[in-house]
Write a structure and sequence with these properties.
By secondary structure, this protein is an all-alpha fold. The termini are far apart. It is 77% helix and 0% strand. Helix 7 runs parallel beside helix 20. The longest helix has 34 residues. The protein has one domain.
């Protein structure tokens, strides 16, 4: 029985995944297997493709936003954001749960990372919820779910990667993320409130009553921290800075507020932030470089064309195809990390989108929101691991606790899929929708 080169590539990739090899090694090895088996491309394509994948300027924004987010956590900027939000809603049913979601939404406009958002906000609020009578499962579940907003509201690391892989404007993708991001935040907030009422979680003993005077004093005291997302995103949308330059502005602002205004940053914190950025940068570059090689080999073997023909043979209805892709993404998300999923699938799915006339910015938002579910679904579910370790509760209990939030996310995904203009009206208004 003779296998085609494309079959060798796909089979070897999944076999290596199952053997437990890292994503980048699986991609690199399966691409090399395809080159050796097919013999139609010179091996020099390996180093050319790897360099091409590494030499992508917008990728610099990712480690810089991670460094900025880490500095803001150590510089008490996250704490100040939490204090303002807690004063606003802390006395409501499930006030600390709602505070967690809203704080995650605010911090998402700084960090661009789901697990990073859970770690920053959850470390502050999960212990506080437990102290005030909330169950550990509720606390871990609401922090996990709120943290998913970190990859949707700009600046978003997955959106940066998607824009690069799809040859789209990063700023346009950021613009498209605002309305869906706040919609998901509202859905998560409502879910947290409903669950708190059902389980009887009232305001905690340390929740202060809201007064305008207290609120204004807290806002004034925290104004440099609250200004952070407006400075970062404002520099992008006013055209004063590219996303990469804005990520550097974020670092400088974090150093100024955390080090000079709050006087909380220490040299050890700077080292930890740089180390965190280096880890993320190394991981992303390895995956992007090897996926560029993998994508070149797939393109040469006409994989995008064959996938397009296969999908069109099932249905030519854009909505039906999107729903089919969403189903596949939900399953893949249980086993693959978000950036890996985007990097592997986008090059082969783009021709399908073009053939069916699906707006790539619309699809990008759907792709990112669907990958939010991946952060909450075991066995991979990264957010579950982060929150369970903070709350000292088992992964299984947290996975059960996030089920209502997964249903809320699924409802949002269906809304964004069935009503494209809900996602695209703001980019169209700013002439960015393509």
């Amino acid at each position: 029985m003779e296998f085609s080169t494309l079959s060798i590539i796909v089979i070897s990739m999944f076999a290596l995944f199952l053997l437990g090899l890292p994503i980048y090694m699986s991609l690199a090895c399966s691409a090399v297997f395809g080159l050796l088996y097919g013999g139609n491309l010179p091996l020099s394509v390996i180093h050319n493709a790897l360099f091409e994948g590494l030499n992508i300027f917008p990728l610099l924004a990712i480690p810089c936003f991670v460094i900025a987010g880490t500095l803001m956590e150590y510089g008490n900027i996250t704490q100040q954001i939490v204090d303002v939000v807690k004063l606003m809603v802390g006395r409501a049913y499930g006030g600390l749960g709602i505070t967690t979601v809203l704080a995650c939404t605010f911090f998402a406009a700084i960090s661009g990372s789901g697990p990073g958002t859970v770690a920053a906000v959850g470390t502050l609020l999960i212990p506080s919820m437990v102290r005030n009578g909330y169950s550990s499962t509720y606390a871990a579940a609401v922090a996990s779910s709120g943290g998913t907003i970190g990859i949707l509201i700009p600046p978003s690391n997955p959106m940066i990667i998607y824009a690069i892989m799809g040859n789209l404007s990063v700023t346009a993708m950021f613009t498209a993320g605002f309305v869906p991001g706040f919609t998901v935040a509202a859905a998560m907030t409502f879910t947290a409130w409903i669950l708190a009422r059902k389980q009887g979680f009232r305001a905690g003993a340390d929740a202060e009553a809201f007064t305008l005077k207290k609120f204004l004093i807290c806002v004034l005291k925290s104004s440099p921290a609250l200004a952070t997302p407006f400075i970062i995103l404002g520099s992008i949308y006013t055209g004063k800075a590219t996303p990469v330059e804005a990520s550097v502005v974020a670092i400088l602002w974090a150093l100024l507020v955390g080090g000079v205004v709050n006087r909380a940053l220490r040299p050890a914190h700077l080292y930890k932030a740089l180390l965190s950025g280096a880890h993320v940068c190394g991981a992303v570059l390895l995956i992007v470089g090897t996926s560029t090689l993998f994508g070149k080999v797939l393109t040469f073997e006409e994989a995008p064309l064959r996938l397009t023909e296969l999908v069109l043979s099932i249905s030519t209805n854009p909505t039906a195809v999107l729903l089919l892709i969403i189903g596949v993404l939900i399953i893949l998300g249980m086993f693959m990390e978000t950036l890996s999923t985007i990097i592997i699938l986008v090059p082969v799915l783009m021709p399908v989108l073009q053939q069916l006339g699906i707006n790539p910015i619309h699809f990008g938002v759907i792709l990112v929101v669907t990958n939010e579910m991946a952060l909450l679904t075991p066995p991979l579910g990264v957010n579950l691991f982060v929150s369970s370790s903070i709350a000292n509760v088992s992964i299984e209990r947290v996975a059960i606790g996030v089920l209502p939030y997964l249903l809320a996310l699924l409802a949002c995904i269906l809304l964004f899929t069935l009503v494209p203009n809900y996602v695209l009206w703001l980019p169209k208004l700013l002439h960015m929708a393509g």
